[in-house]
Structure formats: C-alpha cells, structure tokens
Amino acid sequence: MNTPRAHINAIGTAVPRHDVHQAFIDWALKQIDDRRAAALFQRMAARSGIAHRWSVVPGPAEFYRNGALPPTSTRMEVYAEAAPALALEAIGEVDAAGVTHLVVASCTGFVAPGIDQIIAARLGLPPSVERTLVGFMGCYAAVAALRVAHHIVRSEPTARVLVVTVELSTLHLQATGEVERLLAMLQFADGAAAALVSAEPVGLAIGDFFASALPDSSDMIRWTIGDTGFVMHLSGSVPGRIGEALRDTDFGRSLIADTGVWAVHAGGRSILDAVEHGLGLSGDALAASRAVLRDYGNMSSATLMFVLAALMRDETAAPGLAIAFGPGIAAEGFRFRWAP
C-alpha cells in the first residue's frame, strides 16, 4: 500500500490591531544616552526592511507605565488571554471541521492547561482530539509542528491535523540602552497562523524534512526566562555565520538542487541577505519573505507560515523549499510542491 503524502491544504493568518513599529523606535531612542549610538540605531532601523509590526499591547509607553517593568507573571497573564484569542482569529480563516489532531507551537509564553487545551475547548473540539504542544523551539518551531502533522497523516491517512503557531514576542520588551539589544527587539512582533494538513491532494504537498545545527553556535541565539519577561540574546554575527554555512558546506549546496521557489523565515533583513548571498539566489527569489518582513516583522514561529501563505496565493509549478533558523544556531526545513 502506498504511503499517503501530507498536504498543507490551507493557511490562515492573524495579527493584533496595534501597529507599534514607529512607537518602538521613538521609545528606544529615548533609552539611548549616547548621541552617536542613537544615530546608529536610527540608521539601522531605517535599513531594517520593516514598515509595520503588530502587538497585543498598544506600545512600549503603555506597557511600561510610569517606567515600571512588568514581572514575568503579569506578561504571562496577558499571554494566557491574548495568545488563544489571536490563534482563533487565524483558525477562523481555514476549515477546521472534522479536525482529528491539534498541533500548537509557541515559545513566547506558558500556561497550564496549555493553550492547546484552551484552543480545543473554544473551538468545541471533542475530547478525543489528540493534542501536541511544541514549546520554546523558537523561529523554526513551525517546521517542527508541520513535521508532526506530516507524520500523523502518513500513519493515519484519514487524519485532519490543525497546526497552529502563535507568538506574542512584544510581551518581552526589556528596558535597556544597549543598541544591539534594542536592534534585536526591533525585529520582533506578534502574530498567529493556522494550517490544515491532510492527505487530500490540495495545496502544498510536503516532501522531505531536514535539520542541521552549526557547531559552536549555542551562545549566538539565546532565549532565557528572567524576572521581567523572556530575554533574547541575538548576536550580530548570526547572519555572517548563516551565510558562511550556506556558501561553504554540502548542506548549503544540497538546498539549491531542484528548488525553484523559496520560503525563508523572515528573521530580519540581514538574515535574508545572508541566505540570498550564501546560496547565490536571484534578487527576487526571497520576495515573499521580504514582503512578510516589511508588513509584519519577525513573528518567531508564525513567520514562516505567513511566507507559505503568501506563496500559496501565487501558485506555480516550480518545486519549493522552506527553511527557518533559530536557537542553536539550527536550521530546519522541508521541500514542497504544488498539488496537481
């Protein structure tokens, strides 16, 4: 008997209503005492390739009332309410009827019962629905969640798997005057996506998955839990390491083979530049990723799903490859093609 192929039948997306990108830039400039450092931040912000970022909170000034840093507990209270609500908006754009499995990925909050249970209850899914929660994997968690769905469908051909990625990155703003840390925070935003995965030959047919990690890179992207939120450390040397790995290794060369369409996690302009130059791609190869970065910023695990959703609106016969980068530095991805 032939093993069924999993397909991403549809993807829904959602963002909160507050566009906080300019508000964050204005707030960040007030945190920097040195004029040269402030000018550097302004130049880098202008070159970020980001025009909009959306948040569940109105902005830094609202979040830091009277200069107070909300404790992690307060941020998690917001997450517990806002994350499932945003996820349900994205789910509303796909047909979730008959769902047999629910896979949820998120790294920007914790609550128990988990948001997978909260989402299942609010959708009115039966208790028999099997749930999986993918936590704290960062930007490539969408790949892990889709990989779980892929294996479920291949083992249970009648399965209808709802894959949800939801991130509220802006809950973890930190008060700092360090330009590198402010530039890291400048990238991140909130968003949610939902994909229906089944054996029905509609949408994107999922192919081979792959994973790789760069040696001696564990300190370059770190995400730690502090008393005032989750603290991101993002080294400025990350794009260079990624570009070098893609250019000078068998792993990078293997990605080019039989790839006509690229779905690259929009982690930042410098990340996309590194992928483009490292793989020797044409100037428009990452257009979908750059558009998502411009309109939404880096929404951690939800970002790749936004890119895939954009590509699904512009169907092509060319085979594609999806890839995302995260803590490690690790890269995870899969090949795909459009269903006949």
Sequence-ordered SSE layout with sheet pairings:
Elements: E1 7-14, E2 18-19, H1 21-31, H2 35-46, E3 54-55, H3 60-63, H4 72-91, E4 101-106, H5 115-123, E5 130-135, H6 141-155, E6 160-168, H7 179-187, E7 190-198, E8 204-213, E9 221-226, E10 229-234, H8 238-248, H9 250-256, E11 261-264, H10 269-279, H11 287-296, H12 302-312, E12 320-326, E13 330-338
Parallel strand pairs: 4-5, 4-6, 11-12
Antiparallel strand pairs: 1-7, 1-8, 2-3, 6-7, 8-13, 9-10, 12-13
Helix pairs in contact: 2-7, 4-5, 8-9, 8-10, 11-12
Descriptive overview:
This protein is of the alpha+beta class. The chain has helices spanning 21-31, 35-46, 60-63, 72-91, 115-123, 141-155, 179-187, 238-248, 250-256, 269-279, 287-296, 302-312, and strands at residues 7-14, 18-19, 54-55, 101-106, 130-135, 160-168, 190-198, 204-213, 221-226, 229-234, 261-264, 320-326, 330-338. The strands form three sheets. Strands 5-4-6-7-1-8-13-12-11 form a nine-stranded mixed beta sheet, sandwiched between helices. It has a two-stranded antiparallel ribbon with strand order 2-3. A hairpin with a 2-residue loop joins β9 and β10 (229-234). The radius of gyration is 19 Å and the shape is globular. The protein starts with 6 loop residues before the first strand and ends with a strand.
Keywords:
alpha+beta; nine-stranded mixed sheet; 12 helices; 13 strands; 38% helix; globular
